[in-house]
Amino acid sequence: MKIPYQKAHDIIRLVILCLIGVVCINVVAGNKDPAIELSDRCPPYFRLDDQNLCRLSTLYDLYPLANPKWGGYRVALPERRDGYTPQLIDLGRYLFFDPVLSADGDLSCAHCHHPDFGMSDGRARSIGRHGRGLGPARTGGEELPRGAPMLWNMAFQQSFFWDGRAATLEEQIQTVLETSSEMATSPEQVVASLNEVAVYRRLFFEVFGDEEVSFSQVLRALVAFETSLVSLNSPYDRYIHGDQQAINAQEKNGLHIFRSFASRCSQCHAPPLFTSGQLATTGIPGQPGKPYDVGAESVLDEASLRGAFKVPALRNIARTAPFMHAGQFASLSEAVSFYNNEPGHAVADRDDLTLHWHIVNPHLRADEIMDLVAFLNTLTDEAALPQTPEVVPSGLRVPR
Amino acid sequence: MQLDKLVVRFIFSSCCLLPSTLLARDIVVNPGEQIQDAVNQAQAGDSVRVMPGLYQETVYIDKDDVALIGVIIDGERAILDGGEKELHDGIIASGHGVNIEGFHVRNYRSNGITTQGANNYRIHNNIVENIHLYGIFPQFGKNGLVSQNITSNTSDAGIYVGISENVDIIANEAFDNALGIEAENSHNILIEANYVHDNAVGIPVVIFPGMQTKTSADVIVRNNMVINNNSTLFERSAMKTGRGITVTAVDRVTIEGNIIKGNSTCAVCINSLSSMGGAFPVDAAVEPEPDHTSITRNVFVNNGYQAVGLEVAGATIKNGADIVNLARGRGHCAAASQGATTLGLSRWADCDPQLSSAHVESYLLAEPVVSQALSRTQKAQLTYHAVCSGCHSYDHTMIGPPMIVIQALYKNNPQGLAAWIAEPTKKRPLEQFPAMPPQNYLSAELRLDLARYILNEVGAR
């Protein structure tokens, strides 16, 4: 059959229009890679159960069940958040790396919590909105008052942020999304942005079975991903499980100093998580030219908590210099040496602070400080570092 | 006193679950040898027997069910000496079911004998002296016995049980310490038949805020001799000296059947957290007042004759009393029949004459604290995911090669795989895969079960 010229022209025009339309839709929706599929496998250290849920497995589950809040060595861990599907965890991973969550489309969670920098950013204080680049090289934009905590073993934590002001991970995530100097967005805007991305609509539908993305689903996916970042398999752990050669003599001596009551490190950084999860005022110095950060005092309106911060976990600590809530110390050796001094020595108004009763000068020798640092280096296990996606569903630039 | 029965119960409860004790060995250490070398060799059920003599080291027991015994011959003991307080701790145990007895531990900079996170322990018949902080310090543990030890001249507590449950502290002597026997942030603690004298504070029972545990309750202080605790040896406690037994914000403390004599501030002082001054931050999760203290059947002689550091509403009190209450709280009682002198007890009730703690013979558990019950297959499955899955996937390359390759290599050879897991040798170029750490800490049985799981189950679904 012969197609009249005009008709052929119309068809060609239609095809071209359609093609342009598809391209336009794809560009608008940022759908550069419609092939993104969610993983059906659990992350490292998780077992897929009969319900298609990922369950954390750790050798600490083989130890006697006393009170898991205490801490100790060959002890069971406290209650954890797990039981998410592999697909939900992977959806959370895409969201985590996707700047689509921010108001300006240029800031993702991973900009401050990046695998290349130990799930932190290698900075004293993080840069939020309008920043450019990644890690220590990140410039411009709004400098935040504190550094980015690393995200290991969030599944076990009961409070979040340096000052402990969020009681759940959901609350923590929402706060970052809504803070004007960080993601500067709103639940409504997040949902609207995601609903504009066809790939996200497909992925959310696959996971939740709903046509439209909801904000609680976004939080749930991010929580599922963040709680999958588990580090409990370092040389230290192998030593505690019984491999007497897993750490060397210097590191063992460091462990003994760490758990000695003269230095008291293990009292607050209680293993296996290396945090008691409590607030403590340690007398960390303020930052030159900046107002003193009162920490939990302003959260709880409690003067005796002036300068109190949540005891940070020490897992993978060797990967996240600089240290303390605003990067006051460049090295582990500096951080340890801070505690080897008279209580309150680094603050101007010592009398305004109720220092934690475990802050005492242990009078460690220089070789003992080196041993302690050597021990802290045995706490590294990054096997569960997440893969940075090649592309994210929005098509926006992946932080790398 | 039921000490022998308690010891028998402890030994029975520790051993009945351990078939390996049938093969238990004695490893003997003589002067000139390192105790730690013997501990490193010891396996569950073994005893390290240390002959009398001088040993200068820190001994650490990071494994379960090991006994560390100082052999006593003609009154001579194995002496663990920290030198001029160069060494931090005498003995550290994190393993469960440890038994530490018979030593003379002295001159350490931190603790004499300490357990952290150990359950089902026994610390018995040790002499611990001249220690910078705590003499005997079990912490973060459940089901422990501290008996017939002698601790002196520690600048903090002679015996300190911190953040623990179900611990009996029986028939010890604690003297010339800042604090004699302290129980902190703990539950179900029995302090019985101890001789606690010449410390600044004899038996403090306390909860501190800002810790992992937010309550402390059910402590029995019974049938102790609490005598002349007026020491000013240590500067940090000199301003709080003269106290026999103190209760600070802990609930349901029973003080019963003690002889409390010659303590200059008080035989018993009851405090709230707020009466401790501004030393601690406010912890909204900790209730600051003690409740349900009962003080009954005690003998009070010559206490409170010259109070030290005793303040009520900002005013210094010169004379103390047998029982001094600085707290509020509810449900307290003191038996009038004791004839005690009192201060601040106007709201307290007389105790019911029938009130007695005799029904609590011991807080030790009838059975040791155990792990969750898992089958061998479940343990193998758990271990695969807890350890192997960090580096290996079923069918793609992660840090190590995929399991599908391993399955082909070791088909029908779980023994070979189990042996390799224990002592991995390099098979592939280092630049391709990093060296696998040995997994020899897993028991031989578990390694074989794990090998079978890898060969038969991984990827099968």
Task: Report on the architecture of this protein.
- The complex is a heterodimer of chains A (400) and B (461).
- Chain A is mainly alpha-helical.
- Chain A has helices spanning 5-28, 86-97, 169-178, 187-195, 198-208, 215-226, 235-241, 249-259, 265-268, 296-300, 332-339, 366-376; strands spanning 46-48, 54-56, 279-281, 308-310.
- Chain A is built from twelve helices and four strands.
- In chain A, the strands form two sheets. A two-stranded antiparallel ribbon of chain A has the order 1-2. In chain A, strands 3-4 form a two-stranded antiparallel ribbon.
- In chain A, strand 1 (46-48) and strand 2 (54-56) form a beta hairpin.
- In chain A, helix 3 crosses helix 6 (215-226).
- The radius of gyration of chain A is 24 Å and the shape is globular.
- The model of chain B is unreliable at 7-20 (pLDDT under 50).
- Chain B has a twelve-stranded parallel sheet with strand order 1-2-5-8-11-14-17-20-23-26-29-34, with helices on both faces.
- The longest helix of chain B has 13 residues, at 3-15.
- With 461 residues, chain B is of the alpha/beta class.
- At the A-B interface, helix 7, helix 8 and strand 3 of A face strand 10 and helix 4 of B.
Q: Would you report the number of β strands of chain A? A: 4
Amount of beta strand of chain B: 25-35%
Question: Outline of chain A, from the CA principal axes?
Answer: globular
SSE sequence of chain A, one letter per element = HEEHHHHHHHHEHEHH
Overall outline of chain B: elongated
Which range does the strand content of chain A fall in? Answer: under 5%
Biggest sheet layout of chain B = 12 strands, parallel
Largest sheet of chain A: 2 strands, antiparallel
The average pLDDT value of chain A, as a whole number, equals 92
The total count of helices of chain A amounts to: 12
Strand order of the largest sheet of chain A: 1-2
Helix fraction of chain A, binned, reads 25-40%
- Biggest interface and its residues per chain? A-B, 63 and 68 residues
Structural class of chain B: alpha/beta
Arithmetic mean of pLDDT of chain B: 93
Question: How are the strands of the biggest sheet of chain B laid out side by side?
Answer: 1-2-5-8-11-14-17-20-23-26-29-34
Number of strands of chain B: 35
